[in-house]
Design brief:
Structural class: mainly beta
Strand content: 25-35%
Largest sheet: 3 strands, antiparallel
Order of helices and strands: HEEEEEEEE
Oligomer: single chain
Number of helices: 1
Strand order of the largest sheet: 1-4-5
Length: 127
């Protein structure tokens, strides 16, 4: 086991830290989720047509913070002609080199007579 420590002032460039080092600091202090102390944090409400309004809020996913200072709008895909389905609005952390961000996404369930909510996507780069 290697003992790690930080953060220390750099002397002649011997201490270089990145975002992962800074995020690691929080992993035993905070857990994933939205911050409930913010009134209506990320509350989802119907808007016009097939859109939803997501209230401002803040949260954390795998030690990466996210916040919306103003309401966000998400669009729900068109419904099935007959069968109901569940859709969920999620905060999605994408660590792939081309994205490196947290966004709000809609995950659509499968239309069925007795629909079930879709499972969240989790891969090596998406949470």
């Amino acid at each position: 086991m290697a003992l790690e420590s930080g953060f220390f002032n750099s002397v002649g460039g011997d201490r270089l830290y990145n975002a992962e080092d800074m995020s690691r600091y929080f992993e035993h202090i905070l857990s994933n989720g939205i911050f409930k102390r913010i009134y209506n944090c990320f509350r989802v409400s119907p808007a016009d047509g097939m859109t939803l309004t997501v209230a401002p809020g803040a949260g954390l996913i795998n030690c990466h913070w996210f916040r919306a200072a103003a309401a966000e709008t998400v669009t729900i895909p068109a419904a099935h002609a007959v069968l109901p389905r569940f859709d969920v609005v999620v905060a999605r952390l994408d660590m792939s080199d081309s994205v490196r961000a947290i966004t709000l996404q809609v995950i659509s369930g499968t239309p069925a007579e007795s629909p079930i909510a879709p499972d969240p996507v989790r891969t090596a780069t998406v949470h």
